[in-house]
């Protein structure tokens, strides 16, 4: 298994998949993962050395992906990062979110985005759904989330008042149920339920012939879960289910040659 270096984009058929880093920095690592042996940690360090900060912390990227169809510029965004300096993630995030600047550097205006996929409703994935005024930032985009994730939100989650309510009021929230094509007229892009991290966690599969990329959200959050998918992360709602789905997805990726595009590992693209 290997990181693919840092390509600016990966191509699948008529789509290009472009990583955009919203935030990055060091968070505590101790106690976050259970079930990892010393060998697992050594393998993880070999695979993703930059994730291991000198102070023993976890250097993490918080990354979104732009999907762009080269023929006509149709554009989607997968995940919306930590958001602005007053977002729910602001007290946790190791740095301020810069997704709007990152999109601008790619020549993407928020108004160009037709679909925003939220892999799940943790605060480092929905931050830029709204701007500093609380209005939808991607004002012409359908925001797709699994209904199971909306239904499972704890009463104290800030996802509802911060992101989902404004999106609903603007008619931009589209909860879906299960495996779903991304959009009518958008061939080869499918939302795939990958529950466990949250009850309605989903991934995005792009497929064209033998070329496949799976944008994995938080199916795995650290290289240690890539070297040993049985390793649990503390934020997983259902660790047993998360483990089973992770094992299944990694086995499938290994068999198919499918590239994984993760939210939090240092290298955006991994081939097993
Ligand atoms: Zn995350």
UniProtKB/TrEMBL annotation:
Q: Which SMART domains match?
A: Lactamase_B
Keywords (A to Z) from UniProt = Hydrolase, Metal-binding, Zinc
GO terms for MF: hydrolase activity; metal ion binding
Keyword presence, Zinc: yes
Keyword Cell cycle set for record:
no
Positions of the Metallo-beta-lactamase domain: 61-264
> What domain of life does the UniProt record list for this protein's source?
Bacteria
- Pfam families referenced in this protein's UniProt entry, alphabetically: Lactamase_B
Q: Which family does it belong to?
A: Belongs to the metallo-beta-lactamase superfamily.
Which PANTHER family does the UniProt entry name for this protein?
A: QUORUM-QUENCHING LACTONASE YTNP-RELATED, QUORUM-QUENCHING LACTONASE YTNP-RELATED-RELATED
From the Swiss-Prot or TrEMBL record, give the protein name: Metallo-beta-lactamase domain-containing protein
């Amino acid at each position: 298994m290997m990181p693919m270096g840092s390509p600016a984009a990966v191509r699948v058929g008529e789509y290009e998949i472009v990583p955009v880093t919203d935030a990055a920095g060091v968070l505590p690592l101790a106690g976050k993962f259970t079930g990892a042996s010393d060998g697992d940690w050594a393998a993880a360090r070999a695979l993703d050395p930059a994730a291991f900060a000198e102070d023993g912390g976890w250097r993490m990227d918080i990354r979104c992906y732009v999907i762009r169809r080269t023929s006509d510029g149709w554009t989607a965004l997968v995940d919306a990062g930590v958001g602005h300096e007053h977002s729910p993630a602001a007290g946790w995030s190791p740095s301020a979110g810069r997704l709007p600047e990152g999109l601008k550097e790619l020549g993407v205006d928020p108004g160009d985005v037709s679909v925003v996929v939220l892999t799940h409703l943790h605060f480092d994935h929905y931050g830029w759904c709204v701007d500093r005024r609380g209005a939808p930032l991607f004002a012409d985009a359908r925001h797709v989330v699994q209904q199971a994730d909306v239904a499972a939100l704890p009463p104290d989650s800030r996802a509802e008042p911060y992101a989902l309510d404004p999106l609903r009021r603007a008619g931009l929230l589209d909860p879906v149920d299960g495996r779903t094509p991304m959009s009518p007229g958008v061939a080869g892009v499918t939302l795939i339920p990958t529950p466990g991290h949250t009850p309605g966690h989903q991934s995005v599969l792009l497929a064209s012939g033998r070329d496949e990329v799976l944008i994995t959200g938080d199916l795995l959050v650290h290289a240690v879960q890539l070297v040993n998918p049985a390793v649990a992360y503390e934020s997983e709602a259902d660790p047993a289910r998360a483990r089973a789905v992770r094992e299944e997805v990694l086995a499938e990726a290994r068999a198919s040659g499918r590239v994984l595009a993760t939210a939090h590992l240092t290298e955006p693209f991994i081939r097993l």
